[in-house]
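Trying the structure run again after the queue cleared.
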Amino acid sequence: MKAYEIQQFGIENLALVERDEPNITESEVLVKFHAASLNYRDLLMIEGAYNPRLKMPLVPFSDGAGSVVAVGDAVTKWKIGDRVMPIFMQGWIDGEVSFEKARTALGGDRDGVLREFGAFDESGLVRIPDHFSFEEAATLPCAAVTAYHALFESGRLHPSNTVLLQGTGGVSIFALQLASVYGARTIITSSSNEKLQRAKELGADDLINYKEREDWDKVVLELTEKRGVDHVIEVGGAGTLQKSLNAVKMGGHIAVIGVLAGKGEFSMVPIFMKAVKMQGLFVGSRQMFEQMNLLLCQHYHLKPIIDKTFEFGEVKDALNYMKAGAHFGKIVVKF
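Done. C-alpha cells:
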C-alpha cells in the first residue's frame, strides 16, 4: 500500500513509500481510507516543532475517514462496508484523559492515517453520520471534537452565553457553527474582512478585524457592555492569551487549545483576580465524539466547511497551503 512517512523533518522531506498492508488481530478492523484532513498539529509534527524527539519513520495525520474492508474473528461492533473514522486517541474511550491515553494519539505516538489502509481495535472507531461524505467526515476527529469539548464538556455552554472565537481555522469555525446552532452569541476575529463576512454567513453575530483593531480585547468589552464574554476559544496561545484574559468576564472560561500566535507574555494576575476558569484541552474521548455526532445528526444542515481539497499525491502542497494560513475552515486530502 502507499503511505507517507516522516523520515526526517521538513515538508520537503515527507516521503511517499510502499508498505505492506496491515495484518489484523481477532479484535481489530482493517480500514481503507478515502480521505484525510489537516490540523496545525500535523504541520508542527512534520516540521519537528511539536516533538523534536519523534520516533521515525512515522505516518502523519490524525484525522481520516474510510470503510471497513476486513474484521477480526472477535469483532462484534463493525462489519465489512461500514463507514468509520478512527478516534484521535485510540485509548481514550471515556472518562478523564491520562498520560497512558494521551500516548495513543494517531500521527504522533502511533502511525496516523496518511496511508491507504490502517488496522484499528474495534473500540477505536466511530461511525460516520449517514449524511456526511468521506471528505466531510475526515474533518471531524480532531478539530470538531476539540470544539465540542471546549464548548459543551469544559465550557458547559448555555444559549444565553457569549463566545469569543479566534481566527477562522478548523477548531474556530466548528466552534462557531456549534455555538450558533445552540443559540449562543458569537464574536469572531480575523485579519481578513472577506473571511469575517464568510463567518457572518455561518452565524457569527459580531466581527472584529484584529489588523484594523489591534486592541480587539477592548472591542470585545465594548460589544459586551464591559461585561466580557463567557467563553474564549483560545487558539493563539501565549501571543493572544493576555487579551483573552482582558476580554473574558469575571468567572469566565478560557479553553486553551492552540499556539498559532507564537510567543508572548501575559500576567497571571487576571486569572485569579477575575476567577477565570482556564483549561487546556487535548481533543477528546470517543464518548465525546459520539455525543457530538448525535448533535450533528439532529442539525442536519450543519456541515463541515472545507476550504480546499487536494489529491493524495499533493500532500506537500496541502501542507504548504496550511502553512500560508490562507484557509477558512478545513483542508482535506482525497485518496
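The radius of gyration is 20 Å. Worth checking whether this holds up in the mutant runs.
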